[in-house]
Specification:
globular, mainly alpha, about 80 residues, 3 helices
Length: about 80
Amino acid sequence: MDSIELIREFLGERLGVAPEKVVSEAPLDGLGVDSLMMLELMFEFEDRFGIKLPSDLKNPRSVGEMAATMDGLISTRQAA
């Protein structure tokens, strides 16, 4: 499973967002992601991929930003 698939699954289960709406350019707030939901989504990434999110991580604005950030953290972990 890649990052966008996880975001699609998460938003579909929690918010009922149709998978075709979860595309790179979609703004997360436009999909119904508030600050609490953002934290839950980030914790889901930590659990699923065994990564640790840095405390200074900036909240991504779009699905693509979220996926790129998480992919970077996952690849860093895998390289270690």
